[in-house]
Design a protein that fits this description.
Blueprint (H helix, E strand, L loop, with lengths): L1 H5 L10 H30 L4 H37 L3 H28 L1 H7 L4 H16 L1 H16 L3 H24 L9 H24 L15 H33 L3 H37 L3 H35 L5 H15 L2 H17 L3 H26 L2 H24 L8
Helix pairs in contact: 2-8, 2-9, 2-11, 3-4, 3-6, 3-7, 3-10, 3-11, 4-6, 4-7, 4-10, 5-6, 6-9, 7-8, 7-9, 8-9, 10-15, 11-12, 11-13, 11-14, 12-13, 12-14, 13-16, 14-16, 15-16
Length: about 450
């Protein structure tokens, strides 16, 4: 624990794999727990403003997942390229790739943020929000989605740190941002002294402030404290390298756009059942994300190990690292699954005392908990492909499981059994993902992917 959190330099291409996984996974799990804590903290306070405010946050977050798809898609490519160069001992090449990622984050963030800022009310209306939800949440959405550049920078710079094996630094950036958000959230939402109450808008301001300060810390670390220092010539714009990174990112962006856009459709389906059902689903999804992002931290550890060991010419070690990480992830999600099934109501009750909201949220947690065990393996196997630079295989898998299976099934089942149809469709798709990805991983073509 001490070594992993201290940021000690480790060569992950040699020595004990179990130790390597732990040294990478501990800070990566904490990092992504911190990312999910932004959402948990916001919904904890916003839920006290009523179901309309909670629904507004839920609709905004569902649209935000599309931008997370872009950020995560590009960050996977950054991690794959940086880790492969580090494995090859080409640190200058790794730094150059990281610099191009920062330029991409600026460009994509500005282009996507401006229309969201200008048409925030239209976005909420398109998502099925009623008049009260639109009036309550327009400014929240405008601030949250208009500042996409900050989210993209936060994700991509942390991807540089992870690819270099410097997971502890990525964790520290998010801890800093969260500490600021936790302090500011209740102050800006409910007011304190000369600071007037801003309601749900205050949650957006607090989160943006915390993330922005975290990004400034990241830039400082890139210059001074990173394992992969980027100064001087590393920041030279390289059109050829940027093009390679974007081409590699296409599969990653498509992969997560397919997955997250399916969540947008599911949220739209839930909106048909009213603000209380939507609020319950929103709270449940926030809790689920809080548990899934640490699991993604283990997946990210597998991706880094795959990239660095393939770069070092050790494909067998890369494969073994994936199986070990998958087992650890499954064990973690078994515990989470049991807690959802038996204590789901208590978790939702932390955020609200509205009976119908608690009922919907509890049912969602229990149903999704049944699919967690196999999904834990599936998400690690998918990240192994991404770490190797093969982002297209997971893209096709997502297209099949989420759009060919999950969405039609959710639509059909909601017509028959109401909101619960969404939960069951998600659980079934999660299990299918594991069933499809395992034989493809065992075939081993990912070991020969060029980055």
């Amino acid at each position: 624990m001490r070594r992993s959190l201290s940021g000690e330099h480790i060569d992950f291409t040699t020595g004990s794999l179990k130790m390597a996984i732990l040294l990478l996974a501990i800070p990566m799990v904490l990092e992504l727990s911190m990312e999910s804590l932004f959402a948990i903290c916001d919904i904890f306070w916003v839920a006290r403003l009523g179901s309309a405010a909670t629904a507004a946050v839920g609709l905004t977050e569902s649209v935000m997942t599309l931008f997370y798809a872009v950020a995560i898609g590009i960050s996977m490519s950054v991690t794959a390229m940086v880790s492969r160069r580090v494995g090859e001992k080409d640190h200058a090449g790794a730094a150059a790739a990281g610099a191009q990622a920062v330029y991409i984050a600026f460009a994509v963030g500005v282009v996507t943020g401006i229309p969201c800022f200008l048409f925030a009310d239209n976005v909420l209306a398109m998502m099925g929000g009623d008049a009260e939800v639109i009036a309550t949440g327009t400014t929240y959405l405008r601030i949250t989605l208009g500042a996409n550049v900050i989210v993209l920078l936060l994700f991509l710079i942390n991807a540089i740190f992870r690819g270099a094996g410097d997971a502890a630094l990525a964790m520290r950036a998010l801890i800093l941002g969260n500490c600021i958000n936790i302090v500011l959230d209740p102050i800006f939402i409910f007011g304190l002294g000369p600071i007037p109450p801003m309601g749900v808008t205050g949650a957006a301001v607090a989160t943006l402030t915390g993330r922005t300060i975290a990004v400034f810390y990241q830039f400082y670390a890139l210059q001074k404290g990173s394992r992969l220092p980027m100064s001087g010539g590393a920041w030279k714009f390289d059109l050829n390298l940027t093009g390679r990174l974007m081409r590699l990112s296409i599969g990653g962006i498509a992969q997560f756009a397919i997955a997250t856009s399916s969540w947008v459709v599911l949220m739209r389906l839930m909106a048909r059942f009213g603000s209380e059902a939507l609020a319950g689903y929103t709270i449940a999804i926030r809790i689920i994300i809080f548990t899934l992002l640490p699991a993604w931290g283990l997946g990210n550890a597998a991706a880094t190990l795959v990239g660095q060991n393939l770069g070092a010419g050790q494909p067998e070690r890369a494969e073994k690292s994936v199986y070990l990480t998958g087992f650890y992830n499954m064990a973690f999600l078994v515990v989470v699954s049991v807690s959802f099934i038996f204590f789901g109501g208590a978790f939702v009750g932390v955020f609200t005392n509205e009976t119908e909201v608690i009922r919907v949220g509890t049912e969602c947690l229990r149903v999704l908990g049944f699919g967690y065990i196999l999904y834990g393996w599936g998400m690690v196997l998918v990240q192994a492909f991404n770490g190797a630079g093969d982002t297209m295989t997971p893209t096709w898998l997502n297209l099949i499981t989420f759009w060919v299976v999950q969405i039609p099934l959710a639509w059909f089942m909601t017509e028959k059994i109401g909101p619960a149809g969404v939960y069951w469709a998600v659980m079934i798709a999660d299990v299918l993902l594991f069933i499809f990805v395992l034989p493809l991983f065992r075939r081993g073509k990912w070991k020969t992917t060029l980055v």
